Task: inverse folding
């Protein structure tokens, strides 16, 4: 069963999508209004507090906005969560992620679970700091990590960005190992890269080397069968972070109890060449199905075709249409449609294209999808738009 609650004001639109009374997707998208970040964050966390109520525990939280809005967000968040007396308060990943109107906040994404659902919920710490949460369900153990970067607990002798990227992946590997998990259990990563266009190739080399060390791919990066090696779904997009690291990562790892009640598949998209075949080590999406829900975790998707080329170069509307077609194909392959999307992020290279995007969204009847719009460079200089997200449907119980 899917239940949707929507809150609208002059400042923001908020969605809370409840799947099977087990999982809650919360999205706050700020409108292009001239409000201060203090006002924005105060109203946003009042709405989030009402959405969560007494039944939900937040387990992952990401804020997009200008870095200078962080203190206001933390203050509003602390006030709201103290009033809820939460069992657990997740660390926060703050990404700049600038709003299209240039100042303040763009949006907040939050994942929560019903307080009656998880067992043994506990905080994950690493080098004396909290970086996430783990908990058990009848089907699997979940690990959510946030704000992992290459400067954790070390003083790098140089500011080499590739070295920071490598250290970021190894920090995640070390945390997972400490909590009796493996990088092969990673289903999805979200990676935000400062000055992405300046060094994305170096980043990919660092990721490929790390994943090779972790046993996810062969050393030549050829002949890879992603279903066998489980390359995670991923977003890799422009974004600054509070640690001033070259990149920062959130991730989800799932350790199934058995394949009978938890089925995880990494996905290809027939309308796009697999990304690892042109040097980017991720799958096009991840399908996660248990006894209650079937989710598609959609990787960052852009106007890339079956041969791996950028198409509709210089044509923003054409790129948006092709991106939505690519997303639609992956949704259909997992038995879903756009209306099953519970959370989405729309990355726009040129803020002036926002009006054209709105026109396409309305024409395709997608304006009810909970989406945050962000000004950000995509991983190629000729890409003008990217989308990621999560879609979910309740699983009908066996009769």
Result:
């Amino acid at each position: 069963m899917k239940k949707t609650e929507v809150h609208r004001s002059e400042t923001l639109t908020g969605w809370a999508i409840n799947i099977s009374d087990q999982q809650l997707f919360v999205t706050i998208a700020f409108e292009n209004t001239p409000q201060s970040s203090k006002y924005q964050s105060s109203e946003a966390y009042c709405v989030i507090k009402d959405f969560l109520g007494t039944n939900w525990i937040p387990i992952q939280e990401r804020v997009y906005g200008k870095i200078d809005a962080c203190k206001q967000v933390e203050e509003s968040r602390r006030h709201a969560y103290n009033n809820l007396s939460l069992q657990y308060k997740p660390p926060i990943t703050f990404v700049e992620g600038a709003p299209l109107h240039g100042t303040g906040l763009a949006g907040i994404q939050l994942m929560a679970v019903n307080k009656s659902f998880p067992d043994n919920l506990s905080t994950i710490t690493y080098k004396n700091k909290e970086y996430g949460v783990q908990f058990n369900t009848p089907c699997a153990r979940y690990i959510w990590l946030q704000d992992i970067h290459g400067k954790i607990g070390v003083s790098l002798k140089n500011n080499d960005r590739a070295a920071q990227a490598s250290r970021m992946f190894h920090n995640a590997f070390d945390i997972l190992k400490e909590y009796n998990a493996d990088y092969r259990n990673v289903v999805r990563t979200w990676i935000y890269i400062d000055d992405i266009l300046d060094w994305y190739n170096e980043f990919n080399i660092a990721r490929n080397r790390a994943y090779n060390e972790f046993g996810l791919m062969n050393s030549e990066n050829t002949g890879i069968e992603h279903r066998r090696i489980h390359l995670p779904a991923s977003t890799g997009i422009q974004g600054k972070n509070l640690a001033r690291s070259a990149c920062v990562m959130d991730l989800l790892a799932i350790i199934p109890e058995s394949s009978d009640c938890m089925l995880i598949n990494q996905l290809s998209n027939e309308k796009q060449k697999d990304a690892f075949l042109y040097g980017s080590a991720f799958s096009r999406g991840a399908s996660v199905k248990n006894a209650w829900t079937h989710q598609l975790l959609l990787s960052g998707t852009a106007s890339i075709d079956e041969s791996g080329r950028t198409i509709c170069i210089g044509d923003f509307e054409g790129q948006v249409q092709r991106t939505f077609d690519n997303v639609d194909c992956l949704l259909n392959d997992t038995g879903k449609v756009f209306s099953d999307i519970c959370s989405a992020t729309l990355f726009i290279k040129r803020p002036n294209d926002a009006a054209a995007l709105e026109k396409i969204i309305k024409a395709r009847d997608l304006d009810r999808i909970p989406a945050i719009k962000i000004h950000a460079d995509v991983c190629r200089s000729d890409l003008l738009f990217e989308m990621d997200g999560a879609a979910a449907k309740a699983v009908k119980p066996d009769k």
User: Anything to note?
Assistant: The radius of gyration is 20 Å. The chain has seven helices and 19 strands. Residues 2-394 form one domain. Confidence is low (pLDDT under 50) at residues 219-227.
